[in-house]
Amino acid sequence: xxxxxxxxxxxxxxxxxxxxxxxxxxxxxxxxxxxxxxxxxxxxxxxxxxxxxxxxxxxxxxxxxxxxxxxxxxxxxxxxxxxxxxxxxxxxxxxxxxxxxxxxxxxxxxxxxxxxxxxxxxxxxxxxxxxxxxxxxxxxxxxxxxxxxxxxxxxxxxxxxxxxxxxxxxxxxxxxxxxxxxxxxxxxxxxxxxxxxxxxxxxxxxxxxxxxxxxxxxxxxxxxxxxxxxxxxxxxxxxxxxxxxxxxxxxxxxxxxxxxxxxxxxxxxxxxxxxxxxxxxxxxxxxxxxxxxxxxxxxxxxxxxx
Length: 306
Known about the structure:
Blueprint: H1 5-29, H2 35-57, H3 68-91, H4 94-101, H5 104-115, H6 122-139, H7 145-171, H8 177-196, H9 205-231, H10 234-237, H11 243-256, H12 262-305
């Protein structure tokens, strides 16, 4: 049995990353089903699971009234991110699609500066620049419009996920994590169901099983991620989400004979390095701020005593 909370969090993060990689692989296997329909299956399974969890916990799924517009905003951008991610899985290497989706932390930095007026720190600028160079190596700019469009959709999944995380960051501890998941699952199910109606293709029994499997893996990935952050601060374990790229690369090679070229591998490494920069220097900065706050609080206490 694992006793250390940090170790528990790391194990849960790795399980989450592996689950999402398997979700992506199952989505890619089902080639004849539209992206919206695949997203519908994924969302519907997650919705059923989160309703069961909330029922078991005897909690209302609707959350606090003042948070609902932010929950809806998170759900809208999350839905865009999910559908574009599924599209990119169908049209790009599995590892490339996963990597573009994992660019969300860097877009969070940019959006936080623009919309939340947060000051960008030097290490964050460095991480964004390194990640951008990594993206260029993966994209390998040329003159193939088809590749550009698919790449744009892949990048859009990262942009949308970044925007969704801005709402999640705002909600913070103001709202139950399961309610956030419920809103996202409910709204994304409704949206993808509407978009699926005119293009619906009846899946075969095997395709149905694979799509349900993708939904189950997505739910496992979501809930293990949620619980990982209960055992350790996000800043200490968030770097492990990039294990998803390693798992996706392995699954892509085994099941789809996908072998990224040297430029893509270097791009992956640069983006993971950029994530490590945020992880490493973000922790250092947070510790420094905490120390300064403790010193200031101690001084205030001493002044009151005097």
